[in-house]
Design a protein that fits this description.
single chain, 20 strands, globular, alpha/beta, 9-stranded mixed β-sheet
Length: 423
């Protein structure tokens, strides 16, 4: 049988022997052809589903998770796909691909299985890389959700404008429902796409607007149209994530009084400001991998930490090298102790990656900085250094299940499990 894996292997082989410019032209044909053949092979399953696509720089995984819980809690038969894992009704399994959005045939197979299981709705994380590579082609979307936009994957996309345009592709796939963040400066760009229904959420503006906020590092509370939400998710960014999910669910019949107990029942989002321990010192795992998300996490934890101890690195493979010094500068600004460690080096020299991060740390800041290449040893050192009232924040991997090494190798890994074993 014709498989996507065979095509991918063939493409890698061909790529070695043809010029990059020629390969770029071929790839523009390859991506849509592969996507449409996958959709045809599985009988265009998305046409039998309400597919909700969530894009943005930050918050995609959390919004997919929350929206899924809201729909499920309201009795909807739902499936979900994203970096936190896969779900078809009661069946769940992890995403081990190191890809937020899987390949085209895998997506179509998943959608076919969702239809066979009786699902009516699918919530899908849709990153810019997936859109740029046409992995969304052949999927009939009913709703497009946009969380926010900050510089990321700029080198891969060739510039910020191209990165934004990749996100915008999701909004050209459906003219039915568009959900958008009214507080983000780029809202006008995403609002320019035509749709039958548009709903904006935010704290500063939007129809789904939060008021009377009470924000802490491990919980938030706010009002929306007279309904008070008290969630066990910390930080201002999670207010916006919850609003995005409430807005999306409202388009499918889930009203605010129904949503309230569902939101309040959610204890945590795996790998997203996830508290592993609170006493005698706190330990938090978070996926933060952009300067904006890293600063948001640090700023949320800083006010209530006697000392904030950071364990961080940066992804390799030439990915967004510009942000590495910014990571170092942010760690110096907010944290009392810094431990630089390996994250996902891929084919790049891990030492060079840490050198780049360290460039953002001043000479005085380096007195509170350690380098421990082994990630387990680095986490162990942070836990050893922590005293009562301190918070250890481990960033970069979140709920990921492996570390990516040279030559395509992966080793099993979980920051949360390592912390638990050490504690």
């Amino acid at each position: 049988m014709f498989k996507e894996g065979i095509l991918d292997a063939s493409l890698r082989f061909i790529k070695r022997f043809i010029p990059k410019r020629v390969f770029g032209v071929a790839a523009r044909v390859y991506h849509p052809v592969l996507a449409w053949t996958g959709a045809l092979r599985y009988g265009f399953p998305s046409q039998k589903l309400k597919v909700i696509g969530v894009t943005g720089t930050k918050g995609k995984s959390t919004v997919v998770y929350l929206t899924t819980k809201l729909l499920e809690g309201a009795g909807v038969k739902v499936a979900a796909i994203g970096s936190l894992g896969y779900k078809i009704r009661e069946r769940e399994w992890p995403n081990t691909l190191k890809m937020t959005m899987p390949g085209r045939w895998k997506i179509q197979k998943f959608l076919r299985e969702a239809v066979s299981a009786g699902c009516t709705h699918v919530v899908m994380e849709v990153p810019s890389e997936g859109l740029a590579q046409g992995r969304h082609i052949g999927v009939t979307f009913d709703c497009a959700v946009w969380t926010n936009l900050h510089p990321e994957h700029i080198e891969a996309h060739g510039g910020y404008e191209q990165y934004r345009a990749s996100k915008g592709k999701l909004f050209t796939t459906t003219q039915h429902v568009h959900i958008m963040n009214a507080d983000d400066p780029e809202v006008h760009y995403f609002a320019s796409f035509p749709a039958q229904k548009k709903l904006f959420f935010g704290v500063e503006g939007g129809e789904m607007r939060a008021s009377q906020l009470d924000v802490h590092e491990d919980c938030v509370a706010f009002n929306v149209y007279g309904t008070r939400f008290e969630a066990r998710l910390g930080g201002h960014f999670n207010v916006l994530n919850i609003l995005a999910a409430l807005s999306t669910a409202s388009m499918y019949g889930v009203d605010l009084p129904t949503a309230q107990p569902i939101i309040e029942s959610i204890a945590e989002i795996p790998g997203r400001l996830q508290w592993i321990q609170k006493e005698p010192f706190g330990v938090v795992v978070d996926y933060a991998h952009t300067p904006e998300s890293l600063e948001a996490v640090y700023a949320t934890l800083r006010p209530n930490a006697k000392n904030l101890i950071a364990v961080l690195g940066a992804a390799g493979g030439g990915r967004d090298t510009w942000k590495r010094p910014k990571f170092g500068a942010l760690a110096e600004k907010y944290c009392d102790n810094i431990i630089l460690t390996n994250e996902d080096p891929y084919d790049e020299n891990p030492k060079r990656i840490l050198d780049d991060v360290a460039e953002g740390i001043s000479e005085s800041g380096r007195t509170k900085t350690k380098r421990i290449m082994d990630r387990r040893e680095a986490i162990a050192q942070a836990l050893t250094d922590a005293k009562k009232g301190d918070i250890v924040i481990i960033t970069g991997k979140g709920s990921e299940t492996s570390i990516a090494l040279a030559g395509g190798r992966k080793i099993p890994w979980s920051d949360a499990d390592v912390v638990r074993s050490l504690l």
